[in-house]
Amino acid sequence: xxxxxxxxxxxxxxxxxxxxxxxxxxxxxxxxxxxxxxxxxxxxxxxxxxxxxxxxxxxxxxxxxxxxxxxxxxxxxxxxxxxxxxxxxxxxxxxxxxxxxxxxxxxxxxxxxxxxxxxxxxxxxxxxxxxxxxxxxxxxxxxxxxxxxxxxxxxxxxxxxxxxxxxxxxxxxxxxxxxxxxxxxxxxxxxxxxxxxxxxxxxxxxxxxxxxxxxxxxxxxxxxxxxxxxxxxxxxxxxxxxxxxxxxxxxxxxxxxxxxxxxxxxxxxxxxxxxxxxxxxxxxxxxxxxxxxxxxxxxxxxxxxxxxxxxxxxxxxxxxxxxxxxxxxxxxxxxxxxxxxxxxxxx
Length: 347
Description:
- The chain is of the alpha+beta class.
- The protein has helices spanning 2-17, 60-76, 79-82, 97-104, 189-213, 232-237, 256-261, and strands at residues 22-36, 88-94, 114-118, 128-134, 138-146, 163-170, 173-181, 219-224, 240-241, 252-253, 267-269, 272-274, 277-282, 295-301, 322-323, 326-327, 337-345.
- Strands 5-6-7-8-13-10-9 form a 7-stranded mixed sheet. It has a 6-stranded mixed sheet with strand order 3-4-2-1-17-14, covered by helices on one side.
């Protein structure tokens, strides 16, 4: 009898050993909302076009339609794997706190109880970056807006977006999120490149300042960088590595370069795809022990059929709000991007 009891005990242990691991998934998303302005004229910024009497005839009806579209997209990013809306969302091209409040309070998003971290930046058009977070998943404990000081050849200041960093607890684990919208390519890529190099240097200083106090800090930087993964800002300044097997404790890892080299992009211009919307992260999210907190799992570009222009010259491009100066009631000129973090949990 004792022999059979021993056999039963062994088989029970074996069955437990073969049970699949259980993981908690958290989704991080970024979306350029393409000029999410309210309808009011702000005398301090150049928002005249996005008013009812402006060039774009930006009426309350169009604004409401835009909010609904943005809320729908945000509610669905990454849901194929996670079955819910993203836990953390970085956004750019938002005019102020008011439009963000209208966004998170829309019926598509209100049930998720998003909090907002936002600062007004000195950008001449009045557009900012911000972080949205599910309050039941993430608790911000510290956040700062870092100013990017740029000067034109004539010595005059070129006002642009600040860089946002938010420190917080994701399911009680310390993690940092940075949100960016680097200077555009207005005037040409080569001519505007020094501005994005300066933006990357500021990103590096922010990361270095965090790592000075916590060498194993988990940091994710996201945004519309107006640069591809292979451009100097990423390869020469930040030294972002595409191969996760070549990382050391000081490395930064970029999962988007592999997508870019396969011809994937988040926006298109003159039949060329760019992947300006990106994530990169500290190696602590790649090399950490799988039994110790969150680590990187996978990334993607969110491209459901309704976000694609269905016909004409720009078929397959992001379906924009305006095209050729005419209102078409689309979504954004960028596709959203997302990544999943996973953490092993006890069954």
